Amino acid sequence: MMDRAEALLAQSFRQKTGPGELAIPTIRGVDGSLIHMLDHKTDLGQVWEMEFNPAGLVESKVLRSPDRSVQIALNGPSARRTQSNRVIEEYFGAGVQHLAFEATDIFAAADQRDLL
């Protein structure tokens, strides 16, 4: 697939992979987004089972402030072969994977961001 994409002058993209991670052939779309090439005839056909926790075994606890204005979800993988477990092992402990904010008016919230 990559040979064909590169023959059509697609810009290839490569990123560092860690232990146990697959090197997924990737090109950049016309808007700069990443397009991953998965081939079901190779290990790439098993990417979801290999990269993520197929059994969904994640233990979660939510910490909330009394007024519920702040909520923090703590998720811990039960299985060893999960992305979150690899992050914990590679970076020597837990960390923040993503943040989410709620706003009733996203544009007003964006206008207010400089006031914080």
Structure in words:
- Helices cover 22% and strands 19% of the residues.
- It has 116 residues and is an alpha+beta fold.
- It has two domains: 2-51, no CATH class; 58-115, no CATH class.
- It is flat and about 55 Å long.
Give the key terms:
single chain, three-stranded antiparallel sheet
Q: How many beta-strand runs?
A: 5
Report the principal-axis shape. flat
Number of discrete domains: 2
Order the strands across the largest sheet as they lie in space.
Answer: 1-2-3
- The first-to-last residue Cα distance is 48 Å
Please give the count of helices. 4
Mean pLDDT: 75
One letter per element, helices H and strands E, the order comes to HEEEHEEHH
What structural category characterises the helix and strand content?
Answer: alpha+beta
Sheet-strand content, in percent, reads 15-25%
Low-pLDDT regions: none
Please summarize the sheet with the most strands.
3 strands, antiparallel
- Indicate the radius of gyration in whole angstroms: 19 Å
Q: Helicity range of the residues?
A: 10-25%
